[in-house]
Amino acid sequence: MESERGNEPTVIAMPESKANGKGKAILSSTTKVTEPPKAGGYKKGVAIFDFILRLCAIGAALGATATMGTTDQTLPFFTQFFQFQAEYDDFPVFMFFVVANAIVSAYLVLSLPFSIVCIIRPHAVGPRLLLIMLDTVMMALTIASAGAAASIVYLAHTGNPNANWFAICQQFGDFCQSTSGAVVASFIAAAIFIFLIVLSAFALKRD
Amino acid sequence: MESERGNEPTVIAMPESKANGKGKAILSSTTKVTEPPKAGGYKKGVAIFDFILRLCAIGAALGATATMGTTDQTLPFFTQFFQFQAEYDDFPVFMFFVVANAIVSAYLVLSLPFSIVCIIRPHAVGPRLLLIMLDTVMMALTIASAGAAASIVYLAHTGNPNANWFAICQQFGDFCQSTSGAVVASFIAAAIFIFLIVLSAFALKRD
């Protein structure tokens, strides 16, 4: 466009600039001549990407919930006093993890319609603001639960001799493995949330 | 484009620039006659509030770092094998907590100039976008470390009979108290981050 402009004869440039004088025309011809379609397109792209990321996050959060919620290992021996069994609800932190990830999964499913509204109307500010606010809160919930569960998983793997807490993963290998997997899935969901928030910020910004 | 325009003969540029002046006048008088002061005012308010919140978050994050970093309790008795002492670096999670909160504090201090830029130029998009992105990442770091430390503090308070992890807070009461305080301070910092992100989203949105 610029080169064309530069090649334009002077005579033609004159009436254009005169027409520019009539107010709004100047805005569109000088500063925003190509922007409206471009802006709409890029915002629509952002909205579609947002929708796809939400689907991925649902997968990660649901996977984390299901993996942790079904974790259950019974050792093939028992003493007079104990049957050695490890379940997620032996650890309050893992229960919090399951509840938090279930809430996040439900939120993500419920947020899909709003994401679709943002695809249909890329310039709508209301749903976008609502999504960025709730996303932030849900991201905090996800990553708090993931961090808490991660520290317990780490403790189960390595133990802590200073506090006389012994590693239990020698005995409960499968239990440790599936809880570790759930924690990783939850961190993936949290990372997707970070992307979603940044995307929403880009979609919100003035063109 | 502008520079090429600048190379255009004066005869043509003259009416254009005159027209430009009119154009802008028309623009501002028709479409945005009342908006600039109102919008600027509310965005400036948001930016100032952002700055104040950042100062509060620095206090919370630095407080968390310092409280956790100086936590140290030695029990007034010892056996042949042990001197009973609890320090934050007995627990890897607490070390992560200290490092994460120190990073967040440093980030918050470094973000103050950008916040000031946003006060001076409430409509600037660049610094605002930078802040919301980094805030999101730092919020994730804060709350992950706070959640991880919280689960260890909880474990120290209550223990877990299923894993044979015993509560250590009976012995190390002061240690538990100051680590709990640090965790609370870190959660406060994380909550302030959530506010900061939502505020930035409001400041970014089109008027």
TrEMBL record, chains A, B:
Task: Note the topology in the membrane.
Answer: Multi-pass membrane protein
Q: Which residues belong to any copy of the Casparian strip membrane protein domain?
A: 44-191
Query: Membrane as a keyword?
Result: yes
Record has Cell membrane as a keyword: yes
Query: Which Pfam family, an example, fits this chain?
Result: CASP_dom
Per the record, the major location class is membrane
Q: Mind listing the UniProt keywords for this protein, alphabetically?
A: Cell membrane, Cell wall biogenesis/degradation, Membrane, Transmembrane, Transmembrane helix
Q: Where are the transmembrane segments?
A: 51-71, 91-117, 129-156, 182-204
Protein task: Regulates membrane-cell wall junctions and localized cell wall deposition. Required for establishment of the Casparian strip membrane domain (CSD) and the subsequent formation of Casparian strips, a cell wall modification of the root endodermis that determines an apoplastic barrier between the intraorganismal apoplasm and the extraorganismal apoplasm and prevents lateral diffusion.
The family annotation for this protein states: Belongs to the Casparian strip membrane proteins (CASP) family.
Q: How does it assemble?
A: Homodimer and heterodimers.
Q: What is this protein called?
A: CASP-like protein
Q: What is the organism of origin for this protein?
A: Xanthoceras sorbifolium
Supply the source organism's classification.
Eukaryota, Viridiplantae, Streptophyta, Embryophyta, Tracheophyta
